[in-house]
Design goal:
globular, about 290 residues, 2 domains, GMP Synthetase, Chain A, domain 3, four-stranded parallel beta sheet, alpha/beta, about 45% helix, Rossmann fold
């Protein structure tokens, strides 16, 4: 047996374990952001439970990046799954607005409470998320606690799938999300301690779209792109190989200013997932 065939068998085994975990959960509403993890849970539920045994629910708020809802709806339609998109009000939760290290706990509490209510209205008692094995091992995931408190199902975690497994099974099943970059909520771009507001979220969203367009105009492409609101400065994080060329683009400062960052100093740097979790300088700026 070749190493390639052994690798293929391992992916098939992971896929089978996931389908088994979903069947054990039974009819389920999936907290579906459209990202690689929740998309795989949705696809697995459609396969294991049939289209009538699954409901896709995407929370819509100021923290959802532009274009994500349309992409999520398109995939749900392809899978033949009913897709709902209720409004959530994270900004009404003081703990979320305060933007401490536990912000995600308050965000997930709001999102999961709304999704659970919608699920019950449509006859689904169980809610599942895309939490995977790597997420559960990450010390910077307070949102997982909100799910545990609510008895939320986690098929990827239950089946032992980490992020690489998720992408491998997604590719096996020909899901268009298999190589989609991570797309965390817009609040994750705002340095801890700086209050989260609708203005800041919209500004980051506009800035990321504008930076991507400016890069494309210059013939550059970065799979990863974050615009970090650091209070006194704005940092654009890109794939490392793109950074030198991007740093020479004077247009980036212009588009960031037009997006709402004004004359704030701009830093172009390499992308690092979860970088703000390790940056804790004092913040004195008021929102």
């Amino acid at each position: 047996m070749t190493s390639e065939s052994r690798g293929g068998d391992a992916v098939e085994e992971k896929a089978a374990a996931l389908l088994s975990a979903v069947r054990e959960a039974g009819p389920v509403a999936v907290a579906y952001s459209g990202g690689v993890d929740s998309a795989l849970v949705l696809a697995a539920a459609a396969r294991a439970l049939g289209r009538g045994g699954v409901l896709a629910v995407t929370a819509v708020s100021e923290s959802l990046a532009s274009g994500e809802l349309a992409a999520a709806r398109a995939l749900a339609d392809t899978l033949g799954v009913t897709h709902l998109s209720p409004r959530t009000e994270e900004l009404n939760r003081p703990g979320y607005r305060a933007n401490g290290q536990d912000r995600c706990y308050f965000c997930k509490s709001e999102v999961l409470d709304v999704i659970a209510a919608v699920a019950r209205e449509h006859g689904f008692d169980q809610v599942a998320t895309g939490t995977n094995a790597d997420d559960a091992a990450d010390p910077f995931r307070p949102g997982i606690r909100a799910g545990r408190e609510r008895g939320i199902r986690t098929p990827l975690l239950d089946a032992g799938l980490g992020k690489a497994d998720v992408r491998a099974v997604s590719r096996l099943w020909s899901l268009p999300t298999w190589d989609k970059p991570a797309t965390p909520c817009l609040a994750s771009r705002i340095r801890y301690g700086i209050p989260v507001t609708g203005h800041r979220l919209a500004r980051v969203d506009r800035a990321e779209r504008a930076v991507r367009e400016a890069l494309a105009d210059a013939g550059l492409r970065s799979g990863q792109l974050r615009v970090r609101d650091l209070g006194d400065t704005v940092r654009v994080e890109l794939d490392a190989e793109v950074v030198p060329a991007a740093a020479r683009l004077t247009s980036l400062a212009d588009v960031l200013a037009a997006a709402g960052f004004g004359a704030a100093p701009v830093v172009i740097d390499g992308f690092a997932s979860g970088r703000l979790n390790h940056e804790r300088p004092p913040v004195t700026e008021e929102s």
